[in-house]
């Protein structure tokens, strides 16, 4: 399919459009992060019957900017026993993947600028969704290296636990994305949006069943360390997690990366399952309505993340791992096989579904018996 902007080669105008598109996307994402932090603090305070930020700017809307300025002027500390180069590099390995992943998200339709058709997204590579998975894998390095390079045991333990959590849920994330790719027939995010455009029931949320959507939503919640999966920063157990030794601007980069990842993944789930910018339009300002539909859908997920944080308690680490390895991975793999069977014909699909329904209780029973046997053997010497 490809980006129509490059259909007739690359000239100066095309180069300027590409640069401006990237700069505008980065600026909009930074402003959105600032507003998201304010929105989360304000909404949680309303849910908990508190006032929230109300000093800096009207309704406290400049409070995030004030906090950022404060962090910028704080003293930058580097631990004596740290690996200085890796310690300084780690925050950038966390924030850059979040922006690069957002670059493949279509936020609108196609507009004409200086006679060139321009898609309202930074880039539409043929391997777009694989780029998303690659960026989520690179983000693990930022977390792991931050804890390891600090030269302290608490950040190291926090980074080991965080990387194990992120890697565990990437498996379910990848299987769910494979299900979307299977029905779309393309790795391009723009192609995924177009395949869902004909009607509401063509959205992947409906034609794939609700299961992949739920699995993807749970997996990305754990990937971006949002409650109830925020064990990366479990202060009661790990002081501050992998970034305990960070201060000033480098700590702000980790904080920024977390919220940027939240916005990016909300936009990605809208792209994969809810038709992206698809929605009813009108004859006046036709280019504006897809953007508004995209923003409205993304806002619903951002509101949901804040609601999760205000309402749900943090789960235990063993529950986190059990959910990832024993529930989400088998469920996403089984549903992928079911959808693949349906792509052949309905008989194959329902035959696979029936086999999964029969085999799943047997596997669960086998795992439970094995776990009980291991526990009984481990308790034997103590008795």
Can you characterise this structure?
This protein is mostly helical. It folds into two domains: 67-344, no CATH class; 346-383. It has helices at 12-47, 63-73, 84-102, 128-149, 153-184, 189-195, 204-207, 210-223, 235-238, 248-273, 288-311, 317-344, 346-379; strands at residues 110-113, 116-119. The chain has a two-stranded antiparallel sheet with strand order 1-2. Helix 2 crosses helix 10 (248-273). The longest helix is centred in the N-terminal third of the chain and has 36 residues, at 12-47. The N and C termini lie far apart (67 Å).
The arrangement of helices and strands along the chain is HHHEEHHHHHHHHHH
Distance between the termini: 67 Å
The number of domains is 2
Q: pLDDT below 50 for ≥5 consecutive residues: which ranges? A: none
Q: List the strand order in the largest sheet.
A: 1-2
Count of DSSP helices?
13
Strand content: under 5%
* Share in helix: 55-70%
The tally of strands reads: 2
Structural class: mainly alpha
Average of pLDDT: 84
Major sheet details = 2 strands, antiparallel
Please state the CA-atom Rg, rounded to the nearest Å.
Answer: 23 Å
Globally, the shape reads globular
Please render the helix and strand layout as text.
Blueprint: H1 12-47, H2 63-73, H3 84-102, E1 110-113, E2 116-119, H4 128-149, H5 153-184, H6 189-195, H7 204-207, H8 210-223, H9 235-238, H10 248-273, H11 288-311, H12 317-344, H13 346-379
Helix pairs in contact: 1-10, 1-11, 2-10, 3-4, 3-10, 4-5, 5-8, 5-12, 8-10, 8-12, 10-11, 12-13
Question: Keywords for this structure?
Answer:
383 residues; mainly alpha; 2 domains; two-stranded antiparallel sheet; 13 helices; globular
């Amino acid at each position: 399919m490809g980006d129509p902007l490059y259909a007739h080669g690359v000239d100066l105008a095309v180069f300027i459009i590409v640069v401006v598109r990237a700069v505008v996307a980065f600026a909009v994402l930074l402003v959105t992060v600032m507003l998201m932090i304010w929105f989360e603090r304000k909404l949680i305070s309303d849910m908990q019957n508190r006032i929230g930020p109300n000093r800096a700017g009207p309704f406290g809307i400049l409070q995030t900017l004030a906090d950022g300025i404060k962090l910028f002027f704080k003293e930058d500390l580097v631990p004596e026993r740290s690996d200085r180069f890796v310690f300084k590099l780690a925050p950038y390995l966390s924030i850059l993947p979040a922006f690069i992943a957002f670059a493949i998200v279509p936020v609108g339709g196609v507009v004409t600028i200086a006679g060139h058709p321009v898609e309202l997204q930074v880039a539409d590579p043929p391997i777009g969704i694989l780029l998303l998975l690659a960026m989520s894998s690179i983000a693990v390095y930022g977390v792991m290296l931050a804890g390891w390079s600090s030269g302290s045991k608490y950040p190291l333990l926090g980074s080991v636990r965080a990387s194990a959590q992120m890697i565990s849920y990437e498996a379910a994330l990848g299987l769910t994305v494979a299900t979307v790719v299977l029905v779309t027939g393309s790795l391009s995010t723009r192609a995924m949006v177009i395949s869902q455009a004909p009607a509401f029931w063509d959205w992947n949320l409906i034609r794939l069943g609700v299961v992949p959507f739920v699995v993807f939503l749970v997996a990305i919640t754990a990937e971006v360390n949002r409650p109830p999966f925020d064990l990366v920063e479990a202060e009661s157990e790990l002081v501050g997690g992998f970034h305990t030794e960070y201060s000033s601007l480098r700590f702000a980069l980790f904080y920024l990366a977390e919220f940027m990842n939240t916005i990016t993944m909300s936009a990605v789930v809208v792209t994969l399952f809810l038709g992206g910018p698809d929605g009813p339009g009108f004859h006046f300002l036709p280019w504006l309505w897809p953007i508004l539909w995209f923003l409205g859908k993304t806002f619903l997920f951002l509101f949901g993340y804040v609601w999760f944080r205000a309402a749900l308690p943090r789960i235990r680490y063993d529950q986190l791992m059990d959910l990832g390895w024993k529930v989400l991975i088998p469920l996403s793999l089984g549903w992928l096989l079911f959808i693949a069977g349906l792509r052949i014909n309905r008989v194959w699909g329902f035959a696979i579904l029936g086999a999964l329904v029969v085999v799943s209780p047997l596997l669960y029973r086998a795992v439970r018996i094995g776990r009980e046997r291991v526990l009984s053997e481990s308790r034997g010497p103590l008795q």
